[in-house]
Amino acid sequence: MKLTSIVLLQGVASLVGPADGHSRWKCPEARSSDTGIKSGPCGDETNDFSNEIGLEIKPGPLRIIFEESVHHTGAPFRISLSDDGSDDSSCVLLDHIPHNDCCRPNLMDESTYTPYVITVNIPNVICDKCSLHLSNPMTDKIGDDGAPSAIGCTDPGTCFSVYHSCTKPFRIVGNVDNGAVPRSEYVCNSETLDEGWPESWFGDNGETVDASTPFLYRRESAVWSEADYTLTTVPSQFVDDAGGVCGASGQQEEVAAEETAINNETVSYSEDAEDNAAEEASAPDGMGKAVDMLHPPSSAAMPSLFISQAAVISFLAIMNVL
After folding, report:
1. Where does the signal sequence lie (predicted)?
2. Is residue 123 reached through a cis peptide bond, with omega within 30 degrees of 0 on the bond before it?
3. What is the pTM of this model?
4. H/E element holding 309?
5. Dihedral, CA atoms, 55, 60, 63, 68, nearest 10 degrees?
6. Cα separation of 6 and 222, whole Å?
7. CA torsion angle for 70, 249, 122, 38 (degrees, to 10)?
8. Which of 37, 52, 123, 177 is the most exposed place for a label (fewest CB within 10 A)?
9. pLDDT at 177
């Protein structure tokens, strides 16, 4: 009984999974599928740039997608660009991305995860192995400190619960004619916010909450489109589909590539089956044909089968003697 109880408990634990786990990259592809990474910036995959995806990105607008697996009211996001081959430093591309409070995803069902679609600006740099970092401070856990007029928390700093995700490495093909520099020589934008990006969002009870100070967070929410998962209250530069791997055309190409791969595997399997059938059909009775144990050969065919098998055994015996 004790052993049975232990097995049952282990089974339940495996079904329930982790008690929390919360956001990750969807496109570009995340280094880890884990949505509960709490050690920044990339968990166990920090500074691991070995798993490249062969993706090249041009400077300028880039549509990206991340997703949330567990709802955390008002928990904002930040997107940064790593250094070349290093996660130890990064440049913030977009800060104070507000939370979408509409949905309640189920951690155990990935199809329910809440997607966030937004367009960021990639600087004109040359980078062989860059990565996007996602930070998600849990301001829903800081109580009254997360209220619109309260002190908030900082990340890095006093936000005690923050979730992280990093994309797999990709290349940035900077435009040299327009002054592209190596990523290691690039100086991060000193502006606190991108031009046109709102400086406030909705806080508790719909009150306005300030979101103009970098790395200082409270509960910050906004309305996201239910149709395409983009923000509804920001300039078009943060909403428009800039194309690329995460744009509509890129997603269609990825689906088409997956379908082609599946079709190729199906054709290959069919050809192998036909070849095997042809080989069996051309083989003499009892030679090269598999014996179906559920439907054995008829009694008339058994002598020839045994004779063939005896011939093979005799041949092998002679070879061993020689």
Report:
1. 1-21
2. no
3. 0.74
4. helix 302-321
5. 90
6. 45
7. 20
8. 177
9. 96
* Terminal-residue alpha carbon distance, the chain: 61
Taking alpha carbons only, the member of 84, 98, 121, 106 closest to residue 35 is 106
pLDDT at 306 over 60: no
What are the structure tokens assigned to 157, written together? 């700093």
Burial of residue 62 (CB within 10 Å: 0-12, 13-18, 19+) is buried
Q: Dihedrals φ, ψ of 13, to 5°?
A: -60, -40
Q: Is the peptide bond before 297 cis (omega within 30 degrees of 0)?
A: no
pLDDT in tens, 53-73: 889 999 999 999 999 999 999
Residue 248 has what pLDDT?
Answer: 84
Angle at 131 between CA 161 and CA 213, to 5 degrees: 50
Buried b (16+ CB within 10 A) or exposed e, 86-119: bbeebbbbbbbbbbbbeeebebeeeeebbbbbbb
For every residue of 145-167, DSSP letters joined together read: GGSTTS--EETTTT-S-EEEEEB
- Please report the pLDDT score of residue 257 as a whole number: 46
The CA distance from 23 to 273, in Å, is: 44
| Per-residue confidence (pLDDT) for residue 255, from 0 to 100 | 46
Give the rounded distance of the alpha carbon of 254 from its chain centre: 14
Q: Which two tokens stand for residue 132?
A: 């996007």
